[in-house]
Amino acid sequence: MKHIKSITLIGICLLMFNVTLAQTITKEQTIFLTPLWEGERFPDGRPKVPDDILERMKSVAIEEAWGVLRNEGYHNQFEGGWKPLHDDAPFVGRALTAQYMPNRPDVADQIKKKGERDGRVGNTNSWPIDMLITGDVYVADCFGKIVDGTLIGDNLGNAIYAKSKTGVVFNASSRDMEGLSQIEGFNAYVRDWHPSFLTEVMLLSLNTPIRIGAVTVLPGDVVLAKKEGVIFIPAHLAEKIVITSEIVRLRDLFGITRLKEGVYSPGQIDNKWSDAIEKDFSKWLNDHIDELPVPKEQIQELLKKRTW
């Protein structure tokens, strides 16, 4: 038993050594951590949730996503308490993660030397930005540091948006709020804003599991940032959340429409629908398929699966 424990401890130490010096985990390790994802992956192993799902996710309410996640046993996926650049400009994307820690010169020097050997350029806080592609959201844990914890200003913000076309979520602060607000389409969810420069932090890992408040975030998670806060969705549940939200949206619209028309009473709509109402709902979907706020193809798919 002691021998097994020793081997396990050595394995953990080797993994930590690899993460510290390479700033990332291997493709195989990412796949190991996301075993329920059965779709396409990026070369680094991150789940590649389809662009279509990301686009449809923009219409999902935080409460809808939260409800599905809770039902699936995921109780720690939402984090609030942000000071967004724009609280009325939600965004969606795939998480590219980074972890910063308080600076320790001996470790920081090793990381920089390894980065130089790997061809990385510039300061370490630019390394995650170099890795971004369209649809990514740069998610970083910098231990909630505000003063001297400003991970980006408007220069890096422009670089981020040029590569990702989304935004950032930082358990830290940012600077240059005025300049960042002029980047059309860009948004930032941060803990606070501060005029100081980033100092006394070091980049420890890239594209590894990180903690954002009460949430464990994995590379490739779908990030849904809205006015209430940010919810991090495991890749394998993204499509289910989108479909559930669309069905709820359609049923709500049908119910409100029929109530306004006086066809049904509030008691009939607020309770479990009868077979007659379900049939009416199916007919209503088919009759208004080109007018509804859900893609026509998705409604057709829904109608195929209904029994009436």
TrEMBL record:
<dbReference type="InterPro" id="IPR036704">
    <property type="entry name" value="RraA/RraA-like_sf"/>
</dbReference>
<protein>
    <submittedName>
        <fullName>RraA family protein</fullName>
    </submittedName>
</protein>
<keyword id="KW-0732">Signal</keyword>
<feature type="signal peptide">
    <location>
        <begin position="1"/>
        <end position="22"/>
    </location>
</feature>
<dbReference type="InterPro" id="IPR005493">
    <property type="entry name" value="RraA/RraA-like"/>
</dbReference>
<dbReference type="Pfam" id="PF03737">
    <property type="entry name" value="RraA-like"/>
</dbReference>
